[in-house]
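Sanity check

After download, print the first record. It should look like this:
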Amino acid sequence: MKFRHPSIARLLPRYITAGMSAIFRTCRQTEVNPEAKQKLLAAGQPILFTCWHGQLAYFIYKFRASGQSIVLLASPSADGELISRVAERYGAQVLTGSRQKGGLVALKEMTALMRQGKHGGIIADGSRGPYHRLQKGLIFLARESGAPVLPMAVASSRKLVLNAWDRFEIILPFSQVALVIGEPFVVPLTGNVKDLEACRLALESRLRDLFEASQHYPFP
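Expected structure tokens:
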């Protein structure tokens, strides 16, 4: 599904981006465990960033002026198209694919770009869920690219949680916001199906723990 009216397709991402930037500029922002990210950046290796779909907005915003070259994977749905255009306005390169359409091709293209040195970003539970169930595509991408996965979650003192499958969080103006960064997770380059499923479950558990920490973050 595409935006039917060209003016909507052109203007809506611009308004959303402007709104996000305006809101987040009013927020007090910090990072928890930034050393985990800095060590990987200092080593000069690509990183595969991930978070749950419901906390996607701040994740996209954080890369707006990071100076890091990042490629994201989005779904070909209407929501995915909107997310793609917002992310592109923040400087990201976006590839399109899903489990139903073009996903494997997009993952292979993303793998090639990450092997060339670009950082990657992928939503852990995909574009349609199930909620907080880590998708196999992330494990495939981590194995094929050789990049460590850096799980992340977002803590905010004031937010709205939408009644949607992903329980999408809208951070309110003048909030305190903390990007909670987990420890790197490495998927082995070799391994059978059972080993990869064990990796999927382990990373899923780590992301769930980070999310719980974000929901109970002790803001002063």
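If your output differs, re-run the checksum step. Summary of this record's structure: The two ends are 44 Å apart (CA to CA).
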